[in-house]
TrEMBL record, chains A, B:
Protein name, as recorded: methylmalonyl-CoA epimerase
NCBIfam families linked to this entry: metmalonyl_epim (TIGR03081)
EC identifiers of the protein: 5.1.99.1
Xref: InterPro entries: Glyas_Bleomycin-R_OHBP_Dase, MeMalonyl-CoA_epimerase, MMCE/EMCE_epimerase, VOC_core
Pfam families: Glyoxalase_4
Alphabetical list of SUPFAM superfamilies matching this protein: Glyoxalase/Bleomycin resistance protein/Dihydroxybiphenyl dioxygenase (SSF54593)
Similarity-based family: Belongs to the methylmalonyl-CoA epimerase family.
Keywords: Cobalt, Isomerase, Metal-binding
Gene3D superfamilies recorded: 2,3-Dihydroxybiphenyl 1,2-Dioxygenase, domain 1
Gene this protein is translated from: mce
Catalytic reactions on record: (R)-methylmalonyl-CoA = (S)-methylmalonyl-CoA
GO biological process terms, semicolon-separated: L-methylmalonyl-CoA metabolic process
The VOC domain, residue ranges: 4-134
Length: 134, 134
């Protein structure tokens, strides 16, 4: 069921500083910042040969990463996103096996414009998993 | 400088349970457990199309992930490993820019039999970064 690792998302308190570290210091290719007000984040993509690291900074008053940054003021790895072919089939299969799907279980349109769901980190060893239909 | 994302490592309190979740529940291809006593972990590789997730369980009395699991008893994402061509050149470049390399700064032979170094998480938004020479 699991396809590619689409990205690993890191919540950062200072996007400009993080971009400097990944770009100038680590020598990775980084995108321009992209404000996604509907998702409450500004994102920078660190383009790797096989996948992406996404640097997320809160945007607006209801950012989904604000609480995480309150608990982890220095930042930290927020979630991992895996690709699936059929997100409804994936959701139903997971629910049948007792996995808790966050929210109302209906896929939302994610930051890449594709349907996504999040799985409860308590069901996966403290790891917040995003599934994205590709 | 940064090459591929080699793996994301997740520390888990119960490897058998984690293997069941990634294998049976999420439907990923998982390896047999591999005991690495020199590295203080037993590892299972979750084989994705483009990279790997590594599930790590402490092994022995001096496991490098024991303290992490004491702080995070349910488990959690422990580190991200990026590939580099030349680990000595990478280390020197990073040090020149003020990044703290963990330990004595000499590469160790990592769990894949290749030279590795770890970078201080406080220099990368709370993310422990492993560099592996490939």
């Amino acid at each position: 069921m699991l396809g590619r690792l689409n990205h690993v998302a890191i919540a950062v308190p200072d996007l400009e500083a993080a971009v400097r570290k990944y770009g100038k210091v680590l020598g990775a290719k980084v995108s321009q910042p992209l404000a996604l007000p509907d998702h409450g984040v500004t994102v920078v993509f660190v383009e790797l040969a096989n996948t992406k690291t996404e640097l997320l900074e809160p945007l607006g008053e209801h950012s989904p990463i604000a609480a995480f940054l309150e608990r982890n003021p220095s930042g930290g790895i927020h979630h991992m996103c895996y690709e699936v072919d059929d997100i409804i089939a994936a959701r139903d299969r997971l629910r049948d096996q007792g996995v808790r799907v966050l929210g109302d279980g209906e896929p939302k349109i994610g930051a890449h414009g594709k349907p996504v769901l999040f799985l409860h980190p308590k069901d996966f060893d403290g790891t917040l998993i995003e599934l994205e239909q590709v």
